[in-house]
Design goal:
The chain is mostly helical and about 230 residues long. It has one domain: Tetratricopeptide repeat domain (Serine Threonine Protein Phosphatase 5, Tetratricopeptide repeat), CATH 1.25.40.10. Helix 5 runs antiparallel to helix 6.
Length: about 230
């Protein structure tokens, strides 16, 4: 799932955040696993997935074939089509957690947030210690404009894995949008290296201003403007 998050950040033009996620994914899985999935074939293993696809197609309509199709479609940024493949796989293996996670990730990446939220709520109950699932749920809620509802899931993701790059930015944004500016500051500060469009710097400038740190607020606002140009 880390690879899918990296792919999403790369498509958004957020290169620093994407590279941090790719590095984390490579550390977690330095070699491609034997069975293709949407989590491992996005960038480094795309050629492997394509080769596997040709072989699996000869075997007919199987779960593995649908997984590989989903992987390739994800790499092509066709997330709605990838979601359809995950659904087809789930018809053959109802309730399989790894397939449901693949579907949830594709729904999230395709901005189908309502469907993603419903599935992620189910998944986090089954895997309460999975930081990525808590992050995806929180980020879905944040994308829907419900920052207060997003914050608990993002806090949980941060507690489970404080070194997971996207969590700090999303948690900081959720806290700031909820009016908890002082609490948002350290998370926004930690996310600054991954800010390429000035959004995090701008949010941090507002948080600094609200907490009486005028000089820092002005510096952040200036840097935000520079990044936007």
């Amino acid at each position: 799932m880390v690879y899918l998050l990296a792919e999403t950040r790369e498509k958004q033009g957020r290169k620093a955040a994407a590279e941090a996620l790719y590095s984390k994914a490579r550390a977690l899985s330095p070699k491609p696993p034997g069975c293709p999935s949407a989590y491992c074939t996005i960038r480094d293993y795309d050629s492997k997935a394509r080769g596997a696809f040709a072989k699996l197609a000869e075997l007919g309509d199987t779960v593995e074939w649908r997984q590989t199709r989903a992987s390739i479609l994800t790499n092509q940024n066709k997330h709605k089509e990838a979601a359809a493949e995950w659904r087809a796989a789930l018809k053959m293996a109802v309730g399989r957690p790894d397939l449901e996670q693949g579907l949830a990730a594709s729904l999230y990446a395709g901005q189908q947030y309502d469907e993603a939220e419903a599935l992620l709520r189910k998944l986090v109950k089954g895997e309460p210690g999975n930081a990525e699932l808590h992050f995806l749920l929180g980020d879905c809620l944040l994308a829907k404009g419900d920052a207060e509802a997003a914050a608990p899931s993002l806090r949980r993701a941060f507690t489970l894995n404080p070194r997971f790059p996207p969590v700090r930015s999303s948690l900081g944004r959720a806290l700031a949008a909820s009016g908890k500016l002082a609490e948002a500051v350290p998370h926004l500060e930690a996310a600054l290296p991954y800010d390429e469009d000035g959004a995090t710097h701008f949010q941090l400038s507002r948080a600094y201003a609200a907490t009486g740190q005028k000089a820092k607020a002005e510096a952040m606002a200036k840097r935000a403007q520079e990044l936007r140009q």
